[in-house]
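User: Design a sequence. Structure:
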């Protein structure tokens, strides 16, 4: 699988991985300092402190005096929590709108420039939101809201471009495991952000915004000078364009063709090696035009996967935004300790995305793997909701939930999205990748925005157990959206085994594995044929 990779492949993998990890590190900062911000924005008359100036006796006083007495920002903790939830919702709405736009822009402009601009400008927005406002004592709801909306728009430039660039460099034969591993960039970014917050929060929450913004800005400079968006820019062939496999076993109607060698009993067990090799020399052909937004939206599988990702991202991002806050308020653990423990959800997502991508490559279908991971997540969500006040047990259950939910989300947002953007109906037009990615992730972010509005309402009016019941419901709805694709893929796999009794034949050319069979039956049901 890796014998045909060049230094460019490794460089692209590393730079896109790190760039999106830095994006997520800046997002994670806000979720990890919510408890601290809530304390500083509200009075705390019931908070007890050890006053060493009075013989070690415990005194009761309201903190923080400076912010509360000068600005009266919020009267109580609940009001502050509502506003923090509103900031999450505003960010995700802006992010969702930006994704639809950024996908279209990414297919029409140089994706390296789009990505670099998004990283540097987002770093500036994060600095203005969390650091400069504190240094200047600018406590304004309108200012915070405006800056976080701008940050959401700028951060949306990241995912469509990095997924499209990765899909340009890595083909279908290895896309599941490669993008499954690569999609850990978001989780790694969360981990980086959590460690940064834990390390600098003692100096003030403004430094938890300052350090990630500096790192993100520096990363944008590196991307500008070092990233190659497409193999064509350096004279290399596209990953799936150097071979055309002939003698397809099943035609568009799903019936065996007359050229099918497996229909001849005497040749049933013969190895099939007939392939047409295409020269690696680039052909002089006009640059393909980017497809329109509605054309991309109506591609097979896009609507169903977008709908499923809206439900799944609602749950995944609820963990992302609220998990440290939940641990602090539910169990009374310190903010720094809760930030460290929340990392285990991302660790589970990394493992789940990598293993799930590998399995889906071997099956040549994605939906069965995703369905299994989602089904596994339902009981795990319930068990995690009743986790005892034990850090080890909580971290273990959290990692299992991350394996199912985070892993499934990683597969949909990376490997499946790339498959949708390079499916057969596009006839090799790569100018749809960023647009399709923006549609899927943008629709998911709309669902996530709704979730961030609902989570604090459910928690304050009911309790955290009802929040987890809500997560279970959304997971079930995710499975319902994928169900037609799952049924189509299972039928396709069963039909093949009943008809021929053997797995699909494959050929290995130039170190890459290609399906000998192009099963167009699955495309009729809206599921991409993964080769």
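Assistant: Done.
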């Amino acid at each position: 699988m890796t014998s045909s990779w060049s230094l460019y492949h490794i460089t692209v993998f590393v730079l896109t991985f790190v760039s999106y990890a830095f994006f997520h590190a800046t997002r994670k900062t806000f979720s990890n300092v919510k408890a601290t911000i809530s304390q500083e924005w509200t009075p705390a008359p019931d908070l007890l402190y050890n006053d060493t100036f009075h013989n070690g006796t415990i005194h009761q006083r309201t903190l923080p005096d400076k912010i509360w007495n000068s600005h009266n920002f919020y009267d109580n903790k609940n009001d502050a929590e509502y506003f923090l939830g509103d900031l999450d919702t505003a960010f995700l709405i802006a992010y969702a709108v930006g994704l639809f736009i950024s996908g279209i822009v990414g297919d029409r402009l140089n994706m390296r420039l789009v990505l670099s601009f998004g990283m540097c400008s987002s770093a500036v927005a994060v600095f203005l939101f969390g650091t400069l406002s504190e240094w200047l004592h600018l406590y304004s709801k309108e200012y915070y809201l405006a800056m976080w909306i701008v940050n959401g728009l700028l951060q949306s430039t990241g995912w469509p471009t990095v997924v499209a660039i990765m899909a340009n460099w890595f083909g279908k034969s290895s896309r599941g495991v490669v993008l499954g591993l690569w999609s850990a960039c978001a989780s790694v970014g969360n981990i980086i952000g959590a460690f940064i917050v834990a390390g600098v929060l003692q100096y003030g929450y403004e430094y938890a915004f300052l350090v990630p913004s500096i790192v993100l800005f520096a990363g944008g400079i590196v991307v500008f000078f070092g990233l190659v968006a497409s193999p064509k820019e350096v004279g290399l062939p596209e990953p799936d364009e150097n071979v055309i496999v002939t003698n397809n076993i099943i035609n568009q109607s799903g019936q065996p063709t007359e050229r099918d060698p497996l229909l001849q009993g005497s040749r049933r067990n013969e190895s099939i090696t007939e392939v047409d090799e295409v020269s690696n020399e680039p052909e002089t052909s006009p640059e393909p035009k980017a497809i329109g937004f509605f054309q991309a939206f109506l591609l097979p599988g896009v609507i169903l996967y977008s709908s499923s990702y809206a439900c799944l991202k609602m749950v995944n991002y609820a963990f992302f935004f609220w998990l440290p806050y939940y641990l602090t308020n539910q169990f009374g653990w310190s903010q720094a300790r809760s930030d460290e423990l929340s990392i285990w959800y991302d660790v589970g997502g990394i493992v789940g995305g990598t293993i799930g991508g590998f399995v889906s490559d071997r099956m040549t279908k994605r939906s069965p793997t995703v369905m299994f991971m989602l089904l596994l997540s339902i009981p795990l969500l319930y068990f995690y909701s009743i986790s005892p006040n034990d850090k080890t047990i909580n971290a273990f259950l959290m990692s299992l939930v991350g394996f199912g939910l985070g892993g499934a989300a990683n597969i949909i947002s990376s490997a499946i999205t790339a498959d949708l953007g390079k499916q057969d109906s596009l006839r090799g037009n790569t100018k749809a990748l960023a647009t399709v990615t923006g549609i899927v992730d943008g629709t998911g972010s709309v669902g996530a925005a709704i979730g961030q509005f609902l989570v604090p309402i459910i928690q304050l009016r009911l309790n955290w157990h009802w929040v987890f019941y809500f997560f279970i419901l959304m997971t079930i709805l995710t499975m319902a959206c994928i169900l037609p694709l799952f049924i189509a893929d299972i039928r396709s796999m069963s039909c093949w085994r009943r008809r021929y009794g053997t797995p699909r034949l494959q050929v290995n050319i130039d170190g890459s594995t290609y399906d000998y069979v192009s099963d167009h039956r699955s495309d009729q049901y809206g599921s991409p044929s993964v080769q």
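The chain has one domain: 7-44+75-243+291-524. The CA atoms of residues 349 and 440 lie 19 Å apart.
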